[in-house]
Amino acid sequence: MADKDDLGRRGEDIAATWLEQRGMAVIERNWRCSAGEIDIILREGTTTVFAEVKTRTSTAFGHPFEAITAVKAGRLRRLAAEWCRANPTPGEIRIDVIAILDAWSPRPTIEHVSGAV
């Protein structure tokens, strides 16, 4: 299981750096509550962005975006609402999804869908 955890952490690190390079500011990483976890929470202007990161070594078992099922999307919306209750912040909110492929290579593939959920 450690390999999967290491891969997930690597993907989240890549995503956080990539998003910061595009002008977003990381507020929190791996925020947890009883309902689950949000990978990365960021600010982009007046918008709070909740980012779900899916990392895979390849597409042999499907593209990372395929892991965002209707059930997962609903959980992400509930988690974002829970964070907002605990951290009242003015402005809009958005849930993005980041796919990372080949995370251990010097040039991983990064795909970002803004407002995906």
Question: Can you describe this structure?
Answer:
- 32% of the residues lie in helices and 36% in strands.
- It contains two helices and five strands; from the N terminus they run H-E-E-E-H-E-E.
- By secondary structure, the protein is of the alpha+beta class.
- The longest helix is centred in the N-terminal third of the chain and has 20 residues, at 2-21.
- The protein has a five-stranded mixed beta sheet with strand order 1-2-3-4-5, with helices on both faces.
- It has one domain (2-113): Trna Endonuclease, Chain: A, domain 1 (3-Layer(aba) Sandwich), CATH 3.40.1350.
Relevant terms:
alpha+beta; 2 helices; 32% helix
Strand order of the largest sheet: 1-2-3-4-5
Give the number of domains. 1
Largest sheet: 5 strands, mixed
Principal-axes shape call: globular
The top-level CATH class is Alpha Beta
Oligomer state equals single chain
Uncertain parts? none
Tally of extended strands?
5
Q: How far apart are the first and last residues' alpha carbons, in Å?
A: 28 Å
Query: Which structural class should the secondary elements be placed in?
Result: alpha+beta
Strand content: 35-45%
Stated plainly, the CATH topology is called Trna Endonuclease, Chain: A, domain 1
State Rg: 14 Å
CATH architecture: 3-Layer(aba) Sandwich
How would you state the average pLDDT, rounded?
A: 94
Estimated helix fraction: 25-40%
Number of helices: 2
SSE layout and pairing:
Blueprint: H1 2-21, E1 25-33, E2 36-44, E3 47-56, H2 70-86, E4 93-101, E5 109-113
Provide a concise account of the structure shown.
The protein has 117 residues and is an alpha+beta fold.
